[in-house]
Design goal:
The structure is a single chain. The protein is 30% helix and 21% strand. The longest helix has 21 residues, at 81-101. The chain starts with a strand and ends in a 25-residue tail after the last strand. It has 15 helices and 20 strands. β17 (414-419) and β18 (422-427) form a beta hairpin. Bound molecules: zinc ion.
Length: 500
């Protein structure tokens, strides 16, 4: 068989100031850079993304792949019309060419599901609508989606099948590509679409409550796998990205096959039945640090504080200082000298100053930025002080943890800056702290720490949960809202509650 393959990934935080322009997709940042044709096949032969899983399966089964492009940019504010226009044009041009050469058996698209631009509320829906417009209704089209997809009804209607990740941290991206391949094969063998059932959850789920190692998410996905074994073709539950201001923002469950309505209803009941359990205990920066210091007394393993309101994975710049100020004010570094770490604080000027000064020197600088928060309030001021440079790293790091294992990330020139016993891991490019290697590169050994502050909401759990005695969630002023109820929603359906 002959499959057309392409990918487009962006998670849009409507409340963030930045934009995903064409340059952002060319660069990719945390994703691989834009690639097309043979270069796309080569780049995604391995790498842990859904497209890699699909390609490996399709090629192992001897199918021919017609590669178009794969374009992804780090989460941020909306995608520019220019960037989306270029990506769409490439895909449609390649598709026209592919269909002209010889018949296609099917199309696979590696999509996110929460991408928007200023004038389009679902770029994935728009892309598939245009593709469907070229191919007509008979062409099998299968999608894989992020667990954070805000799925539109039209997207599900346009595609012959869609499957979402089932883990957060996303450690099953490649597997999701494999499931998409099987779904496409089944669709072709079956000769038509399977019955689709779907239901929307009537409330938003905060990002920090979506971690699939914790309840109620763990139980929901276990139920989903169990029900799937009993006969539906496939079922998905996307928890949604609760910072995309569109009518269809929110969690959605869907399944294909004869019994799919029953399966969807059971998953829906489980999610909604546990409604109050989707809320999380959240502390302000001072409370989080004082509780962490208290817990660290008796804990053998480090206490980890998540800083989800400055999580670059949700479109922030990873540079706020609220928790750092709280650590300093409460003498965390005096209590546990060199055993308190914070990272990654994105501050190119501070990293540059450390590189110019060298290891062992003390530099008087200010680190971090005061930025406008989701509520219009400014975050804490930069922290001014005499920092000792304890380590430097050129900032090319291969991840070793369970998420994106083996992926090369480039936080740029990095430095460990020590202030009163607190170790601050500073980077030149924003990079989410989701792998212990991002500390290890600067001689900070996470398992030896008493207290760690991570600029991440959930992905850090993949590599830190096993070494953490406690995980606390802080609400330190920043651009992302840990509580979606704090955001000034304009377009969300009124029937959807902004809190569980
Ligand atoms: Zn995601």
């Amino acid at each position: 068989m002959r499959f057309f393959v392409s990918g487009f990934q962006h998670e849009t935080n409507s409340f963030a100031q930045s934009r995903a322009d064409w340059q952002a997709f060319e660069k990719g940042d945390f994703f691989p850079p834009f690639s097309r044709g043979k270069a796309m096949l080569e780049l995604h032969r391995t790498g842990g993304l859904p497209v890699s899983g699909f390609l490996a399966q399709a090629q192992a089964h001897g199918h021919e792949i017609v590669p178009s492009c794969w374009a992804g940019a780090s989460p941020s504010g909306p995608v520019t019309q220019d960037a989306f226009g270029k990506i769409c044009a490439v895909i449609l041009e390649d598709l026209a060419q592919a269909m002209h050469t010889s018949a296609l058996s099917g199309i696979y698209l590696d999509l996110h599901g929460a991408a928007v631009s200023a004038d389009c509320e679902s770029l994935e829906t728009e892309l598939v609508r245009r593709i469907r417009g070229s191919t007509g209704p008979a062409m099998p089209i299968v999608l894989s989606l992020d667990l954070h997809a805000n799925v539109t009804d039209e997207l599900l209607d346009l595609a012959d099948g869609a499957v979402a990740y089932r883990t957060y941290p996303h450690v099953d991206m490649e597997q999701t590509g494999v499931r998409a391949f099987r779904l496409l094969e089944q669709r072709i063998a079956h000769g038509g679409r399977k019955f689709l059932a779907r239901r929307r959850i009537p409330f938003l789920i905060p990002i920090v409550a979506q971690a699939t190692s914790t309840e109620p998410a763990a139980g929901v996905y276990a139920l989903l796998a169990q029900l799937e074994e009993k006969g539906v073709v496939t079922a998905s539950f996307a928890t949604g990205f609760p910072a995309t201001d569109v009518p269809h923002c929110g969690p959605c469950v869907w399944a294909y096959g004869a019994d799919s309505q029953d399966v969807v209803d059971r998953i829906y009941d489980r999610v909604v039945g546990a409604r109050s359990d989707w809320a999380r205990e959240i502390h302000d920066a001072d409370q989080a640090v004082s509780l962490a210091l208290e817990l660290s007394q008796d804990a053998v393993l480090p206490v980890v504080i998540a800083d989800p309101q400055d999580n670059p994975g949700a479109g922030t710049d990873s540079n706020t200082t609220g928790l750092l100020h709280a650590l300093v004010a409460q003498g965390a570094g005096r209590r546990w000298p060199h055993r308190v770490a914070l990272g990654l604080l994105n501050d190119p000027q501070a990293a540059d100053a450390a590189w110019r000064a060298g290891v062992g020197t003390v530099i008087r600088i200010r680190v971090g930025r005061s930025v406008k928060g989701h509520d219009g309030q400014w975050s804490a001021l930069p922290l001014h002080g005499d920092f000792r440079v304890t380590a430097l790293h050129e900032g090319k790091v291969r991840l070793k943890g369970p998420m994106m294992t083996g992926t090369l990330v480039q936080p740029g020139r990095c430095a460990c800056l020590e202030l009163g016993g607190i170790l601050v891991a500073v980077s030149s490019e924003k990079t989410q702290m989701l792998d212990r290697e991002l500390y290890e590169m600067l001689q900070i050994h996470p398992h030896q720490m008493k207290l760690i502050v991570n600029k991440s909401a959930v992905h850090f759990r993949a590599d830190f949960e096993s070494i953490a005695s406690h995980i606390l969630i802080a609400k330190s002023p920043g651009p992302m809202a840990v509580d979606p109820g704090d955001l000034p929603w304009h377009k969300l359906r009124v029937s959807v509650a902004t809190r569980p």
